[in-house]
Amino acid sequence: TITTRRGLLQATAAAGVVAMVPRLALGQATSDVLELAAERTTLPLYPGVPSELWTYNGVAPGPEIRVRKGERVKVRLTNRLDEPTSIHWHGIRIDNAMDGVPDLTQAPVPPGGTFDYDFVAPDAGTFWYHAHTRSWDQVARGLYGPLIVEEDEPVFDREHDLTLVFDDWRLDGSDALDTASLGSLAEWAHGGRLGNWLTVNGTSVPEYTLRAGEAYRLRLVNAANARIMAFDPDSFGGLVLAYDGQAVPEPARLGYAPLLLGPAQRVDLLVRPGRGGSFSIAEVSGGAGVEAVRFVVEGDATASQDLVRLVPNAIPEPDLEKARQVRLDMRGGAMADIGDAVHKGEPLVGEAFRRTRQVWAFNGVANLAEEPLFSAAGGESIVVEVHNATVFPHAMHVHGHHFRVVERSGSTVDEGAPWRDTFLIGPRQTTKIAFVADNPGKWLLHCHMLEHAAAGMTTWFEVV
Ligand code: C2O
Ligand code: CU
After folding, report:
1. Which CATH number is 23-151's, of 3.90.226.10, 2.60.40.420, 3.40.50.720, 2.40.110.10?
2. Do 23-151 and 166-298 agree at the fold level?
3. Nearest residue by C-alpha to atom 3 in ligand 1
4. What confidence score (pLDDT) does residue 13 get?
5. Is the pLDDT of residue 8 over 70?
6. Cβ contacts of residue 287 below 8 Å, gap of 6+?
7. Residue 350 — pLDDT band, cuts 50, 70, 90?
């Protein structure tokens, strides 16, 4: 376990600071190219204390990219770091060549180099982008930002549509970003890197003003390396509109607590504040809640009763009867056995993990088997039955596709088999996901606890 002087995510008052993510709207002109520069930037994470971050365009989170559903997105990445990088557009059912995975879908962009991303965003919803080269390091230093795809006819105008990107940073004894602890093998073998400083849109407890009687959409993104965040939307009357960018059929009261938001997951909430006062969203994964973001409600209208419904995206329904069954066994980590696993053909026995840094395996292989997990014909339905034989929870992400969570041992699929791009699986749990493999190319399937992904929990599949 990680203990710090400050304990878990203790927030101090940076009250009154309103952190707005800079918004770069691409508008309708599809010839616009958005420039993103990955660069070193000195910013205060803890008020008054400079930290060296790695950012897109000098801000962390990076600029909010907003496009319309079906719009073409063009981004030129310039690498001003001293090491290679690349960008992954998380949750976008994207053209494979634009997926940002080094050595699988593109060559990593060298220092001084550029890469032109050019893709269509087929689904409306809340997505994000982040570095996908040494991501356990680059994301922890700040290389991520929100990507919002608006509906054809947006239900909320910009004033009623707020993006809230959560991160838990690790500060050191002087309250600067702790980079010395990056890459700790002990953390790779346990629950990953957990931080001690919670920010929303880069600020501790930012404050937003809402108008009583109006309806707002809050888009929550968990950009943490490894923390499964937890929230209680019922406590402030929040209704769930969407998971991982995909609308649920009706705005729904959760009815239980907490709502878990794993690394890389998103949830869109509808809030309709009534007159007066204020409310907060607390992050409750540590038990006692930590205030994360505060809303001041102005005006004295009663709460809006407006019916709000998002139009779902068209995602092909998997055929569960005819689906090809794939099994994925997750093993390894501290306090469990990795079995007869290999990495690049080398058995992971004895002290091999110190050199290879591989401590987890999927079906007996740590990090990128030569053969894909499966190779699907375009349009084939796939069921992946995932067995987690480790004693840790994981946040499993499938690239290029959304899937339904159709079965989960030891609990009901309480959200009604939602579409997701990242699912949580508990220790010793089995979960089945189903999707139509309809996007040609080579796609990763990995744990989004970024230390786990680097330490073995990464595989891939192919759609031909
Ligand atoms: Cu959000 Cu493979 O990543
Ligand atoms: Cu994991």
Report:
1. 2.60.40.420
2. yes
3. 90
4. 27
5. no
6. none
7. confident
C-alpha 129 to ligand 1 mean position (Å): 8
- Which ligand lies nearest to the CA atom of residue 265 in the structure? 1
Domain definitions of the chain by residue range: 23-151, 166-298, 324-463
The percentage of residues in the chain with a pLDDT greater than 70, rounded to a whole number, is 92
pLDDT at 414: 60
- Assess whether pLDDT exceeds 80 at residue 242: yes
Q: Which ligand is nearest to the CA of 393?
A: 2
Q: Which residues form the pocket of ligand 1, taking CB atoms under 6 Å from any ligand atom?
A: 88, 90, 130, 132, 264, 397, 399, 444, 446, 448
Q: For the structural domain made of 324-463, what CATH number should be given?
A: 2.60.40.420
State yes or no: pLDDT of 307 exceeds 50: yes
- Determine the Cα–Cα distance for residues 49 and 199; give it in Å rounded to an integer: 15
Residue 455, pLDDT above cutoff 70:
yes
Span 366-395, pLDDT tens digits: 998 889 999 999 999 999 999 999 999 999
Domain 166-298 has CATH 2.60.40.420: yes
- Could you report the per-residue pLDDT of 145-161, keeping only the tens digit for each? 999 999 999 999 999 99
